[in-house]
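Worked Example 4.2. Consider the chain below.
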Amino acid sequence: MNEPLPFWKTKRLDEMSREEWESLCDGCARCCLHKLEDEDTGEILQTNVCCRLLDTEACRCTRYAERRRLVPDCWVLTPGNVAGLHWMPRSCAYRRLAEGRDLEWWHPLVSGDPDTVHRAGISVRGKVVSEREADDLFMHLVDWEL
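Applying the procedure from the previous section yields the following structure tokens:
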């Protein structure tokens, strides 16, 4: 008997339940990194500096429900805005699905294991410093494939 297709293959982003939407986050925390935009070219420059609310070991926000209030420039992803957020990592499940691509093998929904994103080297675990420890973002530029 054929197994039913997983929800991310049968639903558009705007058709997903809140639980399905939230489960798309792979826990990489790359969206929690500070970015700089070149005003002349629009190029996004990556840093290894993360939001002060990020638990850098778990790669999860410590105050997720309150993040917009505590960090006003924190983006809340929605089906309506994710396709236009060009700074989101190419590996991000939200971006991948918005672009018509499938989830990667290391995504917890595919692998069944939340640690595969870390073992695959996709997450920021062990690679970042908190914004509390970084004075000059330009001193923390990185060239990671995102």
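The beta strands are 33-37, 44-50, 54-55, 60-61, 129-130, 141-142. The chain has six helices and six strands. Compare this with Example 4.1 before moving on.
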